[in-house]
Write a structure and sequence with these properties.
The protein has about 450 residues and is of the alpha/beta class. Helix content is about 40%, strand content about 15%. It has 15 helices and 16 strands. The strands form 3 sheets. Strands 4-10-9-8-7-5-6 form a 7-stranded mixed beta sheet, with helices on both faces. Strands 11, 12, 13, 15 and 16 form a 5-stranded antiparallel beta sheet that branches. α4 runs antiparallel to α12 and α8 runs parallel beside α9. The longest helix is centred in the last third of the chain and has 22 residues. Bound molecules: pyridoxal-5'-phosphate. Pyridoxal-5'-phosphate (PLP) binds next to α6.
Length: about 450
């Protein structure tokens, strides 16, 4: 490894980073994170802070899970790679498919298709939804519905159903036939509705209106996150997903639950759909399936959807997949990670520490006017919307948001910024004392606004 001077000198010189300005990064280079242990990360300057981001909503088991690390290195020794395109497979992939199916059985999922991450999973699910309808004799069902504020990755399909325009505008035109419903975002919505139940009902009514306008026979799928993550931790009313499930069933539309963040315990339940008592037709997963230690994603299908493919003629073949689908090392990581996830019952800790973080931030809102809205309370996902003035809800300016971000870091916690929101999704193994330290760092940071 080159020395620290080299790393500092070359930081962001040649490497373009996702979701940032490559020119700006040359002047304001990113923090170099060198090491991690437990729930802490250490940068090249020796700052040791709690990672309230969990890597990127993914390091559910924290950074020191030896069982997952060992599974990866053992698998590297035995079989570092082999293709899983039709004709060959590998033992870890078979084991991982079994473990995943046990994990998601209660959600009604019976088959899995492995990918390299969340964006792959979303695009694959959208393709499978179209193919499913074609196989059922409804080839006109090609359109997709989704929610504003939703995040579904950056591939063309995911970007097309994405509900945050900063991920869309530079790349348009996107897929045609993608239509967006309002988000269950009580703080800001076109209905000016602050009651979550009434807002849910209005969105459901808007969905029915849109479906009838489009013609139900043209819509393939509706995709949603059970709790919207990257869009600002937007928690719908408990009735919302269930009501949308009913609408989807009524109109023959497949419901895809995007569990890339919510899956594997983040919401305080093993899946987001289960948290709301819903059985979707398909699920997309990534992140927590390997705790971020290896890039793996997956598409899950209900028995009913799977049967359409498995009993079809030649047209049931899947002409989609990636080189790293069912990668043996990723699959070994997934097997170990699912085992550890269950053994440690991290969903229970997510529920209690999530409540602690949410309550702690709500107390900070009594003290700091810069906090416009606090969202969460369902597992370890907490969002704080920052405003310049509370009555006008004017988003806090980017410079001050940056200042708060750095001050929180200086006080001992890494948080994530998404526009004027602070987003937090710490490892699900975090302790009570570590959670208090995040709240204390936020308190300091808001004081600097
Ligand atoms: C809900 C959701 N879907 C899809 C994705 C895309 O996943 P990836 O970044 O692994 O491609 C993300 C990423 O954060 C996500 O939060």
């Amino acid at each position: 490894m080159k020395d620290d001077n080299f790393l500092r000198e070359m930081n962001a010189r040649h490497l373009w980073h996702p979701m940032g300005h490559p020119g700006d990064a040359r002047g304001n280079p990113p923090k170099i994170i060198r090491k991690a242990e437990g729930v802490n990360i250490t940068d090249i300057d020796g700052n040791d802070v709690i990672d309230a981001v969990g890597g990127l909503w993914c390091v559910n088991l924290g950074y020191s899970n030896d069982a997952v690390k060992r599974a990866i290195s053992d698998q590297l020794a035995d079989l570092p790679y082999y293709s899983a395109f039709a004709g060959t497979t590998n033992p870890s992939a078979i084991e991982a498919s079994y473990a995943a199916m046990e994990f998601f059985a209660e959600d009604g999922m019976e088959r899995i298709f492995f990918t390299s991450g969340g964006s792959d999973s979303v695009d694959t699910a959208l393709r499978m939804a179209r193919q499913h309808h074609r196989l059922k004799g409804e080839p006109a069902r090609t359109k997709f519905l989704s929610l504003k504020k939703g995040y579904h990755g950056t591939h063309w399909g995911g970007a097309s159903v994405n509900g945050n325009n900063r991920f869309r505008i530079a790349y348009e035109p996107l897929l045609s036939g993608c239509h967006h419903l309002p988000s269950p975002y009580t703080y800001r919505n076109p209905f000016d509705e602050t009651d979550p139940v009434k807002l849910a009902d209005k969105i459901v009514a808007a969905a029915v209106d849109e479906i009838e306008f489009q013609d139900p026979g043209t819509i393939a799928a509706f995709i949603m996150e059970p709790i919207q993550g990257a869009g600002g931790v937007i928690v719908p009313d408990a009735s919302f997903m269930r009501k949308m499930r009913e609408v989807c069933s009524r109109f023959g539309i497949l419901m895809i639950s995007d569990e890339v963040i919510c899956g594997f315990g983040r919401t305080g339940d093993w899946t987001g759909a289960r948290h709301w008592g819903v059985k979707p037709d398909m699920m997309t997963i990534a992140k927590g399936i390997t705790s971020g230690y290896y890039p793996v994603g997956g598409v899950l299908l209900s028995g009913e959807v799977a049967e359409v493919f498995e009993t079809a003629g030649a047209d049931g073949s899947l002409w989609t997949g990636v080189t790293y689908s069912a990668h043996p090392v990723g699959a070994a990581a997934a097997v170990a990670c699912i085992r550890e996830t269950l053994r440690l019952r991290i969903k229970d800790n997510a529920a209690s520490r999530g409540a602690q973080l949410h309550e702690g931030v709500k107390r900070l809102a009594e003290k700091h006017d810069v906090i416009g809205d606090v969202r969460g309370g369902h597992g370890l996902m907490t969002g704080i919307e920052l405003v310049g003035d509370r009555s006008g809800k004017t988003p806090l300016d980017a410079e001050t948001v940056k200042k708060v971000h750095q001050a929180v870091y200086d006080a001992g916690a890494m948080v994530r910024i998404g526009a004027n929101n602070i987003l937090m999704s710490p490892p699900l193994t975090i302790t009570k004392e570590e959670t208090d330290r995040i709240i204390a760092a936020l308190d300091f940071g808001f004081g600097e606004a």
